[in-house]
């Protein structure tokens, strides 16, 4: 059972999405389309944000909806990035083929590690997720002939998208390409979490013993969520490689796993739009604080986490929802 | 032969440090069920405190160690009362996030005070250099480290197994509700145990400053090792982490000596397999 404080921050079941909310999310997507026209100088940054939103969205499926806390999600992002990068250097540099391969490779790694790790929970799962990511990081670091080791993969170039749209230096193609992928992934995740399967994931998050008692195959469901999340994280990684033409060893690091978790929590997990709020806020704060001294940024992140866990459970979106409720206008 | 002795010796020294740092984490996690990723913070603080006391104030190693320990114990005790205790019973995610926050804040504070570089340890002259034992040269300081570590571990076992305080901790680990029912003040017990655990971590961090370098990324850099020792050793135990820490110390040293390129991959593959076989660690229930 959840206590009252958690129950209060859980998103309420929605019979149908209200008109205002639908209009708000529509206008958000349309506004994103206008970024390269309105603020051309910021397009590469916007692309970076879109890629990270996709990555955070994939984590939301695990942390927010299924209640699986992982400290090694970057392992899957990095797998996608390295797969796309290595393929482009060796076999083919078609963006769609390499992106799909990145997804497939990450899904496979997710299936292999997940099918082992998900047999445990609590501390053992946390440590296993750390250890798995650590091993991949070390392997990428050592296999210098394939991965470039500490230097990463540089000068990874891709052929024009669909044979038509070249990845130009202004980053417009890259941005629209990432945005299209994010939109497709968002529709998919929304479809999944509102399906009966998605509700069974929430059930597992809330109380796995009860779900087992009513006959839900917990292990299979959790594994399915894990593999799906891995594939999306892999796609995000592949997009990162394609749009920045660079794969860094950092894409497999514990720091990245931690960052994406903070981004998601900042926006609010288990709400689909948490990633969309958290990632820009995180990037903005990073830009503001890390400029002078990285120490300021560590301090900022640490304070964000402390304040979030102690005072604002549910992130920014949870806060907004509670404000709306306390203003008496109702949550819908 | 020389290689075997060297690996054994360095491995044991390394294992001792890992054990001193991690044992407190094992006991407090077993007591409170709190997923505390930030335990390495206290080891780092111990290291910084000891290095500063020695390098700036000119204290001897054996004066600096207990002072650093006491200082960090107090910090740990205060943090437990003010912050940690608010999160008992909260979700695993909240505890993970909170302790990540603590790690990041500590990294920032340490960086602002001592700067980004690793802190060098100035050993007194009589501890510098090598000692020759049976024809093999080994660093003198590591002998002190092993001896000191062993003494602390014996003391720890006596406290845990032979005193009323130790019995109370064991009782609360086994069954907190029952311990409370027979009149053990578990809340106070948590605070004291947490303080002692952080003090031990500080001792480990300070003693091991030349094994695990004292730098601002310390709590993040070594987190995998501390967590692995606790997960493999089992929660709420002081024997399990000892076996785990020594094994990991020896295996890591041996791997780095024999296969420097492969680094720690083998160890983590082994830990992976072990945790799948015994998710609650070698001393935990199956």
UniProtKB/TrEMBL annotation, chain A:
Keywords: Cell membrane, Membrane, Transmembrane, Transmembrane helix. Its main location: membrane. GO terms for molecular function: branched-chain amino acid transmembrane transporter activity. It is a multi-pass membrane protein. The chain crosses the membrane at residues 49-76, 96-116, 123-140, 174-193, 260-285, 297-320. It comes from the Bacteria. GO terms for cellular component: plasma membrane. CDD domains: TM_PBP1_LivM_like. InterPro entries: ABC_transp_permease, LivM-like. It is found in: Cell membrane. Pfam families: BPD_transp_2. PANTHER family: ABC TRANSPORTER ATP-BINDING PROTEIN (PTHR30482:SF17), HIGH-AFFINITY BRANCHED-CHAIN AMINO ACID TRANSPORT SYSTEM PERMEASE (PTHR30482). This is Branched-chain amino acid ABC transporter permease. It comes from Paramagnetospirillum caucaseum.
TrEMBL record, chain B:
The keyword Transmembrane applies. The chain crosses the membrane at residues 6-27, 34-53, 59-84, 96-114, 141-160, 189-216, 222-246, 258-277. It holds the Pfam family BPD_transp_2. One of its GO terms (molecular function) is transmembrane transporter activity. Signal peptide: none annotated. Keywords: Amino-acid transport, Cell membrane, Membrane, Transmembrane, Transmembrane helix, Transport. One of its GO terms (cellular component) is plasma membrane. It is a multi-pass membrane protein. InterPro entries: ABC_transp_permease (IPR001851), BCAA_transport_permease (IPR052157). It is found in: Cell membrane. It comes from the Bacteria. GO terms for biological process: amino acid transport. Belongs to the binding-protein-dependent transport system permease family. LivHM subfamily. This is Inner-membrane translocator. It comes from Paramagnetospirillum caucaseum. The lineage of its organism: Bacteria, Pseudomonadati, Pseudomonadota, Alphaproteobacteria, Rhodospirillales.
